[in-house]
What does this fold into?
Amino acid sequence: MAQVISPLPGTFYVKPSPEAALYKNPGDPVAIGETIGLIEVMKTFIEVKAEFAGTFSAYVAEDGLPVTAGQVLAEVVV
It folds into this structure.
C-alpha cells in the first residue's frame, strides 16, 4: 500500500467542484501524474498528483477539511 502525502498545508478537496464526481473511487486505476485531489491555499488550488501507478484504495483525509504538509491524503495499492 502506497500513501499519497500532502505536499503543503491547506484545505483538501476530493473533487474539482462541489457538483462534480470524485477524482477517484475505490477500485479505480491510478496512473503516475494523475490528479487525485486538490489543496486550496489562500484561494489558489494546487493539484495533488499520484507519484505511482496502482489501484485507488481510499481517501484518508476528509473532503473540505484542513490538512498539514506530510499528512496522508489517500492510499493506493501498487
About this structure: The mean pLDDT is 96. The CA atoms of residues 29 and 55 lie 5 Å apart.
